[in-house]
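Proteins fold. Shown next:

***
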Amino acid sequence: MDRKWFNRILQAAVVALAMAAVCQELEKPKEERKWHGRVAGIVPYDFRMPTIEKFLESYWNPYERRVFTPEVFGIGWAINFYTLLENLGVIKSGVSEEDFLMPTESIKDVLREPSTTE
């Protein structure tokens, strides 16, 4: 009984947030409606058509440090699984730009030795 009550409260909250987001957009002039933003400046919403790029941006984005990103479609947050798995140590962090630009020890050795091609 207690769990059923909690589920109904949660459902009512989601419906209320969805209605608030739609009302927020309908209050704007038609040319200013974007159909994405935040309800009360906190809860993200996006009612635009989802794309593969948006799915990847929300659910598998190595360039985003946040674990919780705006949902692809609807209200709330998605989980950036790349960042989550990286934070848990399941995925090793990629090579940083600094590591990429710094020469390895073998390259440093070659650069230290005098040229013998004279």
Remarks:
- The beta strands are 36-39, 43-46, 68-70, 74-75, 77-79.
- The first helix runs from residue 2 to 26.
- DSSP finds five helices and five strands in the chain.
- Helices lie at 2-26, 52-59, 81-87, 97-101, 105-112.
